[in-house]
Design goal:
The complex is a heterodimer of chains A (about 525) and B (about 290). In chain A, about 40% of the residues lie in helices and about 15% in strands. Chain A is α/β, with parallel strands linked by helices. Chain B has 12 helices and 11 strands. Chain B has helices at about 15, 50-65, 80-90, 110-120, 135-145, 160-175, 185-195, 205-210, 230-240, 245-255, 260-270, 285-290; strands at about 1-5, 25-30, 40-45, 70, 95, 120-125, 150-155, 175-180, 200, 275, 280-285. The longest helix of chain B is centred in the N-terminal third of the chain and has 16 residues, at about 50-65. The chains are: A alpha/beta (about 525), B alpha/beta (about 290). The interface of A and B includes residues 219, 383, 422 and 425 of A.
Amino acid sequence: MNYFSGRQVLSVRRKNKREKNVLIKVTSVSFSGLTTIKIDVEINIADKGLPSFDIVGLPNKAVAESRERVRTALVNSNLKFPLRRITVNLAPGDVPKYGAFYDLPIAVGILSQVVGFEIPENSIFFVFFSLDGSLRHTKGALLAALFARENNLSNFFVPRLSANEASVVKGINVYPVDNLNQMINCFESGEEIKPSVYRLNKPASAAAVDFDMCEVLGQEQAKRALEIAAAGGHNLLMIGSPGSGKTMLARALPGIMPLLNDEESLEVTRIYSSAGNIPPGGSLISTRPFRAPHHIISQAGLVGGGTHPQPGEISLAHRGILFLDEFNEFPRAVIEALRQPIEDGELTISRSLERVTYPSRFILIAAANPCPCGFLNDDGKECICTKREILRYRKKLSGPILDRIDLHVDVPVVDVKKLSRSFYSQNNKENSVSIRKRITSARKIQQKRFSEESIHTNSEMKNRLIKKYVNLKPDSEALLMNGAESLQLSARSYLKVIKLARTIADLEQSEDIEEMHIAEALQFRPGIIE
Amino acid sequence: MKKIDIESCEYPELLKQIKDPPPVLYFKGEWNPDLFINALSVVGSRRMTSYGEIMTEEFISAVCRAGITVVSGFMYGIDAHTHQTAVDNGGYTIAVMPCGIERVHPEYQSELHSSIINSGGLIVSEYPGDSPPALWTYPRRNRIITGLSPTLLVIEAGLKSGALITAGIAKRYGKKIFAVPGPLTSSVSLGTSSLIKEGASIVTGTEDLLSEYGIKNSDNITTPSNIKLNKIQKSIMDLLHREPLAVDEITRHLNKSISETGAELTILCINRSIIFRDGRYYPSGEKIKGRKTF
């Protein structure tokens, strides 16, 4: 029975006038990490064959589902979906395609034939639909816009919610689109879509910072360590009992970090864009990222990974702060994976199909308890750990990672009553804004110093650069030699002290490294808390 | 397995005199009867505080330099630190084990174990093989510790502690007991305080210990006077001589910037005028060594 009805339909179709085979090309993009690949979306509407709708060219599940979304969205937008054999090829065919970026180019291609309009030249489309035909906020808008400018694709169609992010890029027209109908009306009857104009969202600076430095009572040395860390980009380890204020100190750190400059801001926004971490209507990120993952994080979550590699927390903390609270509760393998990114400032994730490099130049702020019970050296509570337990606990702190941490600081519990009763002087109550001023000028000095190098801060100096840029006065060198001997410094700690002293001198706008700078730097030597 | 019989003429004389001397002593290292001529037994809390640590270093190093052998129990805390200080100061030390002679307990102190032997000291036990320690072997071991010397020094002890049990044994044996006083806020000073209350001798300086052995303190006392201190450094030293303080507290007392205070503290550390221990700065012990008994 079906056989007959089928034949009948066929014969009806045969009576229709013969339609021509059409091939339409629309430009779109695909992402591999932070790099963008041009994708030609080729749509063939055949004159022969049974009605079908296929997508080829290594689409993943999300791309393949485009078929249903496009068909439904067209119908729901009161547009006709052609009952013909439609083949979509995403070229180049050997690059795997991820993400639902191709709804719009496919729909535009099909509709150009059905409705009959010319796709404007040098256009680039990308994004996916809701079933009602409206365009949804997408990740990667900034990356696609950058790509469009590089390739002279001057008309970039994006969802309205992602338009602000894309219009960061000057020199191309970013057209914010609400839904499919609006776009078709634009092409068919010339209804104008106004290009989006970039507007920087005001950073919610007051709200973004949890604490001001002057709210942290006592902890003078820890605060000073944070200041040095922020100024020179040094990594910091805080050891202290529960409730001593390690977390509060770390959360106050963003408030003294200098703002991102334009170049850094773009770097950070690119990573966030590729990870889809920019909110609808978002703009360039101007405050330094502060990431504080919980210690149950997986390795891929921390350093990035996946078959289609995604940036991890270290990359999301690029040019900002990575705060690892309860540092020795993190799985060993996860922490060890930090070694190279800390050293190189970037991490390449290699997979059989993709090789992706994400930048990861961050300040590591680690916090840990001194012992399993947490109350070693605490005044209030007695530690109940045996020496052996403490040793085992300390061993969890990986040596190679500790080696890469310049500043080690003790965060004792502060007796607030004692503080308010006496001593507490005004000059200890410096607020974050004035500390930030000092840090910003110290960073400027470093910028000038390293203008010919590829690094930004003192902490990134390797041996060669230390020799080139750091001159110790004879007095300072003598003190350092003395200190190295009597405090039993390792060769690596020795270099750390020099780098720290350089930053301390920069904070005081001092050209030379004086004795006092070396002496203060020695305060933060590793192993002082043994 | 090396051992020495109670019948042997080399068996320590003092140990023979206690009520139930071990019939056989197993040992590691070179048996040297001279080790037992001048010996001091030391016991203390496993939960050593930084104060206890510093006191151990002060007293034990002086005692070792005077050629006295220190006897202790190899447990972590004061015991282990006593052995370690003796080894570091080139002194002789005897560790009495609560377990079989072949066993190192606690195991992670095996480095200390071998350095005691290498420095001419002894590891001693009344148990052969590698039998594990049991609750009852500790007091048995303690009687040997007290038995090996005429004097017992208690550095830090809790109210219910092995150190106090040992002191009780020493009392029964009629040994001289010394206790190091400590702050009453610390739970591991309560035991030593109660000993003093009950009539143990209080130690306020190394002289107290050395005169017991008829030795005059011949230590060259290096006074910090040969190091010139600036004004800030002087006031830091004044503060620290009163009580140990953390860097933040020192800053508040001095009302100076943290960078200045920190730098001065480093310089004082390098001069060895002060030492840093567990988050606090202490004046280095020259004062105690030189202190006259009062």
